[in-house]
Amino acid sequence: MSAEHIHLKGITWNHSRGFVPMAATAQRFAELHPHVSISWEKRSLQQFADESIQQLAERFDLLVIDHPWAGFAARTGSILPLNEHLPAAFLADQQANTVGHSYESYGFSGHQWALPIDAATPVAASRPDLLARHGLSVPKTFEELLQLADRGLVAFALIPIDTLMSFYMFCCSLGEDPCQREDEVVSEAVGVQALQMFRELARKVDPACFQRNPIQVYEAMTQTDELAYCPFAYGYSNYARRGYARQLLHFHDLVALQPGGTPMRSTLGGTGLAISAKCQHVEVAAKYAEFVASPGCQQTLYFDNGGQPGHLAAWQAEHPNQQSHDYFRATLPTLQRAFLRPRYHGHMFFQDHAGEPVRQYLMHGGDERALLQQLNQLYRESRQMQAAEPQAATAEQR
C-alpha cells in the first residue's frame, strides 16, 4: 500500500538567493521521498514586508523569515520551536557551526524558532576593473572612503530599513551597541557623532541611493560602469559568481574608522527556515528543514543553486569560495563580529518606523539631538509592546 501523498507549501523572497535554492532543495527532497512534494512561492521584499509571519503561517507550512521576528514568534506561537522537533545532535552541530550570531539570532525564550540557512551582513563590494581603470585601490579607512565618494564612484542602500541598519553600524563602530537600555536607543554623544559621520558620507553619493535596496545597488554597479565601490550593503554572493551579472563584483571587509583601527561592525541579517504551527505534517517538514540546513547540502546543492549558506562549513569550504572569487573567506570576519539587533516582541515596530526619520535627516539635515529624541520615543513605544497583547508587525526580509 503506497504512502499518503504529502504536499507542503513554502513562502520565501523573490531573488535568486532566496527562491532558487529552496526550489532546488524541494525538488531533490521530493526525489528522495517520492510521497512528498514541496512548492515554494515568492514575494518581493516589500510584499514580504507587508505581511507578518503570523499571517503567513496561516497559509504556508514553511517560512523563510528574518531573525528579528524571533520574539514575535515566541509571543504568538505562530511557528514551531524546532528544538522540540529536530535531533539534539543536529541542533548542536548547527550551533557549533554558526556564522557569527546567526544560530543565536533565531533563539528566543529558550527555544529555537528557525534554522539559519542563510547568513549575511553588510559588507563592502567593488568593481576591480573600474578601480584599476581609475588607478585606485579598495579604501581601507573612512577618510579614504570619503575621498573615493568625492569622485562619484561610491553607492550604497539608503531606503529606510537599510538606513537604520547602517545607523546601528555607525553606533557599534563608535563603541556603543544600540538598544541596550530600556529608554534610550544610544547615548547622545555617540548618536550625534554617528549621525554626523553618516550624513557626511551620504551627502557625497547620488540621491538615487535613497531609493535603492542592496539588490538595486548591486544591479547599478554591475549593469553600468559608473560605480566602483559600495562601502556597506547586505552581501549577495551571487554577484561574485561568473555569469550571474554583466560584470563581477568582489567583496571585502569594511573600512576602519581610523587608520590602524579595527574594521567597522555591521548589523547581522540573513534568513532562517521555520515551520508554521498550522503545519499538518510537522515530521516531514522538520526532515526537509534538516536536509536544507545540513552541511552537505549547504555547501553543494544549496550553494550551487544561488543560495548563500548559513553553515560555517560552507563558508570555509573550497568549492563555494572557488565559485565566488573568495566571497565567503573575504567576508567571514565581517559576519563573525556583526551586531545582533534586538528581537524582543515589539522591536519590529521600532524597526519599521525608525528608518525614515534617519533617512530624512541624511537627505535634508537637521537637529541630531531632536532626531535622537524622536527615535527614543519610538523605542520606548516598542518596549511597551512587550506588556501588550500580541499584534502584527512589519519587517523587510533580508
UniProtKB/TrEMBL annotation:
One of its GO terms (cellular component) is periplasmic space. Gene3D superfamilies: Periplasmic binding protein-like II. SUPFAM superfamilies: Periplasmic binding protein-like II. It holds the Pfam family SBP_bac_8. It is found in: Periplasm. Belongs to the bacterial solute-binding protein 1 family. This is Extracellular solute-binding protein.
